[in-house]
């Protein structure tokens, strides 16, 4: 389906605002830059910035919608015979291979900015929590869990915590100035290590059954 000109224009405007904000944040620090300054630099109204990014933090963490949905999406899309744990390990390794922001990849300056900003660190924790909530809902639906069954919530908490740890591991390596190749190798080893720790409990949970 061809994207309409209106939708294309909206996406281009959103990207231009995000790129401008990121440049200013990296130059001066997240807290030092105002939304009004971003709007002026992007040549749009302040209300336009707020329309695309209701929260200032999301100007920096602009992949938040994809980020909060990716674990749940991986579980929903897993093939027959694959467990939730195996699906999430596979998807994380693929994200590492693609050097995706959702796995923690960014530039060193950006990673240090996130680590050094209380506001961005707080927002990132919120996004991780939303990610866990979405995963819990997906697991509950996929396993036909009974109302009040805490199993999907507990499993989601464990799996999301594992991914949160891996994400922070990658972010720390980025901030330290390690190369993408070094980071990918370390993240791959860590992903297998973390999954290995969880296999005894979760290898047989939410294995996708063959569809009739």
UniProtKB/TrEMBL annotation:
Which Gene3D superfamilies does this chain map to?
Answer: Homeodomain-like (1.10.10.60), Tetracycline Repressor, domain 2 (1.10.357.10)
Task: Name one molecular function that GO assigns to this entry.
Answer: transcription cis-regulatory region binding
Chain ranges of the HTH tetR-type domain: 11-71
Q: Has UniProt tagged this entry with the keyword Cytoplasm?
A: no
Q: Which PROSITE patterns match?
A: HTH_TETR_2 (PS50977)
Q: Does the keyword ATP-binding apply?
A: no
InterPro entries (alphabetical): Homeodomain-like_sf, HTH-type_TetR-like_transc_reg, HTH_TetR
Quote the Pfam families the UniProt record gives. TetR_N (PF00440)
Q: Which residues bind DNA?
A: 34-53
> What is the protein's name according to its record?
AcrR family transcriptional regulator
Which species expresses this protein natively?
Nonomuraea muscovyensis
């Amino acid at each position: 389906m061809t994207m309409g000109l209106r939708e294309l224009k909206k996406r281009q405007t959103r990207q231009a605002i995000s790129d401008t904000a990121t440049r200013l944040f990296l130059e001066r620090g997240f807290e030092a830059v105002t939304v009004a300054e971003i709007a002026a630099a992007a040549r749009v109204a302040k209300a336009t910035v707020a329309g695309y990014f209701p929260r200032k933090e999301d100007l920096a963490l602009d992949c938040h919608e994809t980020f909060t949905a990716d674990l749940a999406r991986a579980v929903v899309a897993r093939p027959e015979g694959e467990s939730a744990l195996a699906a999430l390990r596979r998807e994380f390794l693929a994200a590492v291979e693609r050097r995706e922001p959702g796995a923690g990849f960014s530039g060193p300056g950006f990673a240090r900015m996130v680590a050094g900003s209380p506001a961005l660190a707080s927002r990132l924790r919120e996004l991780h929590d939303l990610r866990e909530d979405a995963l819990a809902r997906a697991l509950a639906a996929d396993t036909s869990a009974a109302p009040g069954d805490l199993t999907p919530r507990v499993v989601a908490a464990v799996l999301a915590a594992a991914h949160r740890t891996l994400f922070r591991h990658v972010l720390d390596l980025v901030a330290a100035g390690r190369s993408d190749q070094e980071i990918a190798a370390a993240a791959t080893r860590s992903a297998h290590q973390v999954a290995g720790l969880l296999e005894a409990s979760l290898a047989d949970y939410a294995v996708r059954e063959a569809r009739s």
